[in-house]
Amino acid sequence: MIWLIQTLVIGFSAAFATTFDDNLYLTAFFGKVNRHFHTKHVVIGEFLGFTALVFASLPGFFGGLILPESWIGLLGFLPILIGTSNLLSREEEGDTVQAVTLNLPSDDKPQRHKKSLWATIRDPQTYRVSAVTIANGGNNIGIYVPLFASSNLPSLGVILSVCYLTVGLWCFLSFHMTRNPLMAPLLARYGRKVFPFVLIALGISILIKSQSYTLLPGFGA
């Protein structure tokens, strides 16, 4: 049970650190919903893009089955470097929300007839959302690879479940933030202040969990 609690903490930390800013562009997408561009385009596109990032990171998990755990743990320096970089550069970036341009028709009335799930998945509008998700989550791979590599199969299942639930939560919150646009800048401002520290803590956790410190002179067995 202890491993489950520890894995849940790591999963929530990773999910928050890698997906919290998704709500910024998701809010922009939901604000553009009209008769040609639907809410389900945004939701399905977000999940497809996130799934692509997960698959791109899975080699880390399989590598962790082959390489020694202590060496795999050294990849924990990646989240630390990413978090430090964001911590140093956040003042330059400010609290701007990513602009999303879709060149969508201006008709803001939702379309009445329903498309099938498969038709929505094949719709180019869906992949425009996925493309933004993948582009925005480029750093996620650098975080997921060491995290997956230091996990066994049960832990990986818990972490991925938490991440997908978090993505769903951002979709829900972002949809409702289009009705309260004052919330998006507040969430962006405070989220950006917190998530570099979450990344750094996550990297340190991977290093400790993998006992990578034993590779240092004087700490080995």
Unreliable segments (pLDDT under 50, ≥5 consecutive)?
A: 94-112
**What class, by secondary structure content?**
mainly alpha
Mean pLDDT: 75
Oligomer classification: single chain
Number of strands: 0
Following the backbone from N to C, one meets helices and strands in this order, namely: HHHHHHHHHH
Output the radius of gyration. 19 Å
Strand content: under 5%
| Morphology call | globular
Helical stretch count?
Answer: 10
Q: How far apart are the termini?
A: 28 Å
Helix percent band: over 70%
Number of domains: 1
Biggest pleated-sheet summary: none
Characteristics:
single chain, 221 residues, mainly alpha, globular
Task: Please describe what this structure looks like.
The protein is 71% helix and 0% strand. It contains ten helices and no strands. The chain has helices at 2-19, 22-30, 39-64, 69-72, 77-93, 117-122, 124-136, 138-149, 153-177, 183-209. Residues 94-112 have low confidence and may be disordered.
Q: Brief description of this entry?
A:
With 221 residues, this protein is an all-alpha fold. Helices cover 71% and strands 0% of the residues.
Describe the secondary structure blueprint for this structure:
Layout: H1 2-19, H2 22-30, H3 39-64, H4 69-72, H5 77-93, H6 117-122, H7 124-136, H8 138-149, H9 153-177, H10 183-209
